[in-house]
Structures
1.
Amino acid sequence: MSSYRDFRPTLRFQATLAVSPDGRHVAFADDAAGQFNLTIQATAGGPPRRITDFRDHTVRRCSWHPDGSLLVVEADHRGDFLTRLYLIAPGEEEPHALTETAGATFCLPEGGGAFSADGHYLAYEGNDRDPAAQDIVIRTMKTGDVRRLYDGGGRMTLGGWSPDGSQLSFTLGTGGYDHVLHVVSVEDGEVRRLTQSTGASVYLGPWLPDGSGIVVRTDAGREFKGLAVVDAADGHLTWLDTPDWDVEAVALSANGKVLAWMVNVDGATELHARDLTTNDDLPVPALPLGQADALAVSPDGGFAVMRMSTPARPWNIAVVDLASGAVRWLTDSRPEAADPATFVEPTLVHYETFDGRTIPAYLYRPTNGTGPIGVLLSVHGGPTYQERPVYMYDGFYQYLASQGIAVLAPNARGSTGYGKPYQRLVYRDWGGDDLKDFGHAARYLQGLDWVDPTRIGLFGASYGGFVVLSCLARLPEFDWAAGVSMFGPSNLVTLAEATPKAYRSLVAEVIGDPDTEAERMIAQSPITYADQIRSPLFVWQGAQDTRVPQQESDQLVERLRARGVEVRYDVYPDEGHGLTKTENQIQARSDVAEFLIAHLRS
């Protein structure tokens, strides 16, 4: 008899990678050692080589030094998202800690390499001066001297170095997920604002090789994020690609010749590339139905490297030859024992909600079994996130399908990928109109003749966990068969009050301000209606979670147990906002799957 362990991948990867300056190696983070560590592998293929041996740290991001002699690594401790920076030279036994301020977060740049082109300086973000503000910090590599280049406050995200090392790009948050582009002079700290719109998002990419502009993804004046160049002198915007979908990743070869980017088409990834010397598009193949991310281009522009997954294939590192269009899998993570030939391909469906909008969703329908079957309504986190056609939750959906349970995974209002207005419908309205979308999802399922209407369950993590608790508490008329909430907030007021200072302005914009909106936030919190929960519930929580603290789960479980409601409550002392350790991931998902099978399988 199969178990979830048979479906989990032999290897997992973080959504980060970096190609070495000579193009011969790629660095990425995998969990071959039971925790996400830094690994190097030749881009031509060959055995991987692990170069860190963290036991309680999770590698989140990395960047090569221009001479290829070392890397800087961003890692947190036990999933606390308080990332620190480390230097590691391949062949050395121990990484060297660069930042050690307790309770502070240090991050590598978002839009490019962390090191200046000459390798003399390292730039990064740090909130060690003020927990509510990320500063730009420059470290002199030779001496170790540190200089705070920008400390102007605000929700800052660092981009990257100009080619001559004279400037750094960064964005400042202006509300919600909107950002405005700035550059700062490395010599004197002078800051110039380049984009003027305060109602648009700007996501930083690389500088052009001559320093004349910065490649960005932005929805300025548009519903979707397009690809553009912002002039570094006057901020003029020149569009490169304006699809009616979001551009979600961009990378440029070190020689400045080849630009590659990804477009999210209804959840599936399209890869594009252009020769900037001729302005001709390159013959990039159509990728298989799935998602790709962590895009990088080789220094000479000959190939692209990315992380990629399909509904039947776990995440792996892939190499795409940009001249021929050939796709080559560099790694070979696969299900432990399950046969991918038996896996279910999802169908993109749509259902109508209360206000006439059409909600897209991926439906995984088992091919085995007869008669009405149970269905899991799976809610993604975020809510600024998107359900994608990938090997979701490391084979979790495929295991449930093998056990005769279907999965409906909608992209309700608030999801990314469907335009700026759609995403913003959930701002300051968690537990409002979004909850109606999930009620209509249940009605859609009840209307399918192959669905058992008495066996509809719920699953979600973070915001998805909030929705699970909200559905159980506020939509009891559906008589849900069971629910699983993984680190889901139960009280929007206590969640906002416990938010780390660095995220409080964002929480106020997206969820609400507890000082001025407590009445509304309490009215839309699951804890307020906890006495209406009667369905069996599984609550999972990481004790080190700084985003949704354990108290969010504690207070709800206490209320339910006092009423005699069936609640299983698992707290993992060495995990934070998610599952990073391999054995913890296997155990937690196995337990959740068996709980759902017990309540949803006929």
2.
Amino acid sequence: MIISRRNLIKTAVAAGAALSIPSVVRAQTASNGARTVHMGGFTDLPGFDPISSTANQVADHGMAIYDTLFALDSKFMPQPQMVGKWDVSADKKTYTFELRDGLGWHDGTPVTAADCVASIRRWAEVNAGGQLIMARTSDISKKDDKTFTIALKEPLGVLIDLLADVALPIPFIMREKDASRPASEQVTTKIGSGPFKFNEALARPGASYTYDRNEEYVPRKEPSDGLAGGKIVKVDRVIRDTVADQQTAVAALQAGEIDYYDNPPVDLYPLIENDSNLQLEVLDEGGQDLVLRMNFLQPPFDNVKARQAMLHLIDQEAVLRAAFGNAKYISPVTTIFGQPLSNDENTGWYKKGGDPERAKQLFQEAGYAGEKIIILEQTDWPEGDNIAQFLAASLRKIGINAELAPMAWAALTARRRNKGPVESGGWNIFITYDSDYSLGNPLTDSIPVASGDKAWYGWPKNDEYEALRAKLADAETLDERKALARKMQGIWWDFVGDLRLGRFVSPIAHRKALTSLIHMPQVLPMWNMQKASA
């Protein structure tokens, strides 16, 4: 079912690598020494405001030039970053934060508590975790130039976790005059307090963006650990090249014109692995979980028996082979949550190879009578396209009238909003994915939510599950949250809010001279990495 491009691409790369490299990259060769890193494989930045955008590349831009109050370490525990010290009142309703010494904006002015207050308020307009904070908050106010408080109407045990979260958009701290804009209005300035400065003079929209080491940045004294600790910049300059074409990017990587390629295609993994100068490396070990969403509002999946039938029908290993092929980067999934809340509660339904006979029986018990089941097929996502075709074939084998509706991503995002029957342009199934990290926080991720009309597409509903999810906000310890997650998952797999189709990780490719890349989800930090001399 997979149409391989490997032979075609290998031939093209081998025959004309240097010729395929864009002139903008070749022209920068002279600057590509040990103190300059070229990172390629990106599309053009859609903006520069990491609060008004949830694009990962804009978050990477934010991670370079801005800083955060707290940050996650490699074990996903929140640690102070811009905050020097903090405490909470005995009634757990008032948090006081004092900024550490040495924080300054790229324009030479000091970071103040007023900047932090304005930034938190703006971030909270568009982030689910921030909205939860504001719902519990009576006031956020400056105490003095370095100190501010968050006064709560009732305790919120996950407050610090939310301020450290990297669910997009991330709570970056901006200057008060920038953060005073509504989140719906983009900030166009690029002045932060982070370890890199944006080089406006060298910006080439559509081609490249340049970031220079911030000589005035004062890192924390702790060792770098995940996104926490000292943000030590060990190169002078990072250039993010817009080299979106896959063949061109691999050719540039082989020729040493770029040091890093963000999104190598599966077909080219062997080519990269066989080059002694190149390396594949997984930076987000948690990877991405494939998710099958069913429409709870329309038959047959308004019936729990039909949803349970899908749970038994799915052969995750076969799905993953059809989509990705390479066994090294795929694995089955039986938990609805990512780390640290993943668990094995109520997973007795899982069977290697699936159980199509049980699925057929459950469809019959659901009263299925041959109705058409529409599967939205995303044609510009090759892996998702393969999965949709495989799923349709699996349903047809047990006598289900499955029909594919092929369309590009833009059309799919419009159609999935339709809550009506398939005869009126509705749908029954679509396939997506979400990061394991994001799924680890059901307070901020939209997929593990079962609030009916207020839920994400598919609109799953279960009041018992939602009552437990609400309690997560008041859980003070990770152990308490894990215990709640087990109960939630037990309920989820009974009413089948959606399905998991497996997990995949996507390695990046880089030249072996580039080392010490930070392994974290969601974002690509540019500090800590080093580049050996040629």
